[in-house]
Amino acid sequence: MAKEPSIQQDNNVADYLQDLVLESADVDELLTELATFSASSLSHNGDLLCGVTLMRRKKPATVATSDPSVLALDELQYGYGDGPCLAALRAGSTFHVPDLREEHRWPRYCTAAWAEGIGSILSVPLPLEGEATAGLNLYSTRTHAFSGEDIEKAEAYAEQASKALRLAVRVAQLADDRQHLIGAMESRTTIDIAVGAIMAQNRCSQESALKILRIASSTRNIKLRDVAASIVASVAQDPKVLTHFDY
């Protein structure tokens, strides 16, 4: 019975993250909302700052924050080339700094972060797919701000958040693929119509018409699709004519 509130809380988090994926206009918006929600849901007194770091091709970048000051804290770490966030990304495990004044693993960064008013840090990895990795960075102005229970909660939350993030990335990729396919289909349609027009005007074969179109593209240094579009518009006597598939 003692675990029921935790289970209920996990369900609420999962529901919220699912809604976030469905309602966000793009991945950038989702990440920003994720950082803000992370800071509020994992904080006891509203005193946590949160940032999401994405590591791609071994280069880290802060992609979302709950507060503008987080970016400066992350950039300090990237400048030194090491710190709890980068360590969490590289090792795929949680790193906790309970008191920056007593931390000896990253002395330069911890000294600089302490000067910025930070007392403790918790960095939790967000497992992704492929080459990229991500991490959730939690900053507190208080020392010893994260108890063992807080760390477990953050790790469980990160697991849920990573699922939502992976889903959002897949959805975004599918949307991009769809747009690329539509663009390719529209370009192909325009080129085919232009080839047909050239064949009719010059009484030539399809191969010859396509060759004429390519020569025009090369000579004018204009994309084949754009040359084709100008021909279609000329034949239609309407510069605004569009060629497309219904979808």
Give the strand order of the largest sheet, numbering strands 1, 2, ... along the chain: 2-1-5-4-3
Helicity level, as a percent range? 55-70%
Question: What is the N-to-C order of secondary-structure elements (H for helix, E for strand)?
Answer: HHEEHHEHEEHHH
The CATH level-2 architecture of the largest domain is identified as 2-Layer Sandwich
Low-confidence residue ranges? 1-10, 239-247
Structural class: alpha+beta
Radius of gyration: 27 Å
Key phrases:
247 residues; alpha+beta; Beta-Lactamase; Arc Repressor Mutant, subunit A; 2 domains; 5 strands; 60% helix; 14% strand; disordered N terminus
Write the layout of secondary structure elements.
Layout: H1 4-23, H2 27-41, E1 48-56, E2 59-65, H3 69-80, H4 84-91, E3 95-97, H5 107-115, E4 120-126, E5 133-140, H6 148-202, H7 206-220, H8 224-236
Helix pairs in contact: 1-6, 2-6, 3-5, 6-7, 6-8, 7-8
Task: Write a compact overview of the structure shown.
The protein is 60% helix and 14% strand. It has 247 residues and is an alpha+beta fold.
What does it look like?
- With 247 residues, the protein is α+β, with helices and mostly antiparallel strands.
- The chain has two domains: 4-175, GAF domain (Beta-Lactamase); 179-236, Arc Repressor Mutant, subunit A (Orthogonal Bundle), CATH 1.10.10.
- It contains eight helices and five strands.
- It has helices at 4-23, 27-41, 69-80, 84-91, 107-115, 148-202, 206-220, 224-236, and strands spanning 48-56, 59-65, 95-97, 120-126, 133-140.
- Strands 2-1-5-4-3 form a five-stranded antiparallel β-sheet, sandwiched between helices.
- Helix 2 (27-41) packs antiparallel against helix 6 (148-202).
- The longest helix has 55 residues, at 148-202.
- Residues 1-10 and 239-247 have low confidence and may be disordered.
